[in-house]
Every structure is written in C-alpha cells, then in structure tokens.
C-alpha cells in the first residue's frame, strides 16, 4: 500500500470515528434541540430545554379574560426563580427561564400556547397550566409528546387519579379533598343543615360539587338548591336570587375570583337570606374580598394549606420574611399581601425541591421525581403540611385547615386535616 493510500484510509477512519462520536452524542440529547448529552442510566432520555447551565420552563395563565385575577400567580413564580438565578446560582447550577403565555382562560387558546411552548420555545417542561378546562384541553397533547406538565394550577382530582397521563400532576389540594373538609366541618358543627350551591359549569365546579355530594352521603347534611353559571356570564346575580329563595342554612360558593366577588357582594345585598357562607379556596384571596369590602365578608369560611402573608403570626417567619424581601426586589410592583403571589412563590419552591431530588436532569427524571416525593417540606406551607406522592398517589398535598374571615384577615381554626387519614385515599 502506498503512502498516499495509507493516509487516505487513516483519514477516513478518523472521520468515521468522529461521525460516530457526534451521532452517539446526538442520540443522547433526546428529542428536539437545546438539550445536553446524558450518559449512564440517564442515557437516551429527553433533555430538550435543559443544559448544564440553563433550564427553560413554560407557564400558561389567564392574564386576561374572566379569570385574570389568577394572572398574579406567575409574578410570585418568576420572583422566586429570579431570586434563585441571581443569588443561588440557579437550580442545581442551571439558570431558570420562565416563559409565561396568556390563554384568557380559553381551552382552545391553551392548546395553541402549549404547542407554541413545546414546539417553538422548546421548553423543558410546562410548569403551571392554570385552570381545569385549560389543563384538560392540553394534557392529551403533553402526554403524547412526553413533556412534563408539572404542578398544574388546578385542584381537579383527575390529575392524580388518571394513570393514562403520567406526565401531568397537580400540586394544590384536590377539589374532592377540599370538599371533604367542608363536609366534615358541617357534619360536626352544623348537623341537620341545608345547603345551597353556586358552581362554575365546567370540570372545576363539577369536581368540587361532586366531591361534596359524595362526602355528605348518609350524613345529616343535605343540598336543597343548585345553581350553575358559565364563565362567559356577565354576573351571577340571578343565580344568587334563586339560591336565596331556598332559605338554605349554608351557601357553598364554588367560583373563580371574578364570580366569587360577585357572589359575596350579592350575598351581602340579599338581606332576607343570611346563610353560613363557605368560599372555596381558589376564590378566597384578598384580591377577591377587598373589592367587596372587608366589612361585608366578616364570618365567611374557607380553607387553606399555605401561610397567609397578611397573618401577623408569620411576621417573623424566616420563609415569609424571605418571600417579602425578594418579592420587593424582583417584583417591586407586586403586592406582598396578595395570596396569589405567595402561592406562586410556594409552588416555584416546590418545583425546585422536586427537581433537586431528580435522579436524572431529564424530562423523565422530572416526571419520576414529582411522583416519588416523601414528605417534602415546603417552608411556605402550613406546619404539618408536606408534599407526599407515590406510585399510586399522584396528589402532592392533601391536608387543609379551616379558616374564618375576621377583622382584616383570615384566621385559621381547628386542626390541620389530613384527608388521606380522615377519608382514605382518592383513586
């Protein structure tokens, strides 16, 4: 073999080896672009949207439309991630980019935004899609794409019970567990009571109502009136008048913020009806109560699972002090007393804690991590409330405490109720 031919063969061998190395590295990047090579047990898993130094997350919220009050939540989320990036070196060395899209609480729009985030922005995961209708519209797509849809901002019970959608998981207490807490309270404190219910005519409203109906089966509490509303309705005054005619002892208010304010105002205006008024958790924020007037919401009941930034009990709490300090620094226009900002901070911290225990920095690793949490403590949650999941338990938080509005804030009473222990697991 002559020298020229020998050099040619060696050159082809080197080129082939180089091509093999590139091909192997590319195969380890997973689907899509923007990934980083993984080896060992993580090899072949999806790393789209994440590198050794960055992570891209996408959130979908109603920044406009009938549920726009929830648009405050991503401000708390972003403040947490900005604090993490600037002062803690990011999340396990990765700077987090949080991209927020507006779906106006419209399911078709939510699908559009989910596709844009996954296919154009190429996010690592969807973190927080808000609303039961919007998340329902998107979870088939995200699970087909095998993209984590983590800690969705809705308490629908199906997020934890549906085994056909392993890439989607909730965070807050599910609506069935919340309904159980109200049923337990009424059975113990107001046996023999009659209940009138206002509920949003979608998966959200029906889920909580169905949970309440099942929780009072065989109990000395009875629903005697039901009225539904559509998210496109201008008001719920007509429904409130119909419910008032029932003369029920208890009014169960299953609404989103806009309609929660309307129902509270209407309840105050109907002087011929004075029921015990229970507001579901998602409409119990100060931003819902203040427009009504705090004098008009005295004695209303609800439930909670995280610390209220208005409550002076937490004034010296290290996590509350950190939250208020960093919110002022990274989201100076955000009101620290708005519970939705505290919610956003708490759920972002939950994401950080879950990812920190992921065995692989991959989509599969995140999916598995959020479904294998063992009493993970989140400092913004109430004492005694932790995140717990497992192979047959997709409900991270199932503990709540009753509260009553008194003076200028909510005041908790009774014990934290672990609905897993009190009522058994949801399936």
Characterization of the model:
It is a single chain. The protein has 427 residues and is α/β, with parallel strands linked by helices. The chain has two domains: 54-173 and 311-396, Rossmann fold (3-Layer(aba) Sandwich), CATH 3.40.50.2300; 176-304 and 408-423, Rossmann fold. 40% of the residues lie in helices and 16% in strands. A five-stranded parallel beta sheet has the order 2-1-3-4-5, sandwiched between helices. Strands 7-6-8-9 form a four-stranded parallel beta sheet, with helices on both faces.
Beta-strand residue percentage: 15-25%
Helix content: 25-40%
Q: How many β-strands, per DSSP?
A: 13
Number of contiguous helices: 14
Task: Report Rg.
Answer: 24 Å
Average pLDDT for all residues: 91
Main attributes of the structure:
single chain, alpha/beta, 13 strands, 14 helices, Rossmann fold, 2 domains, disordered N terminus, 427 residues
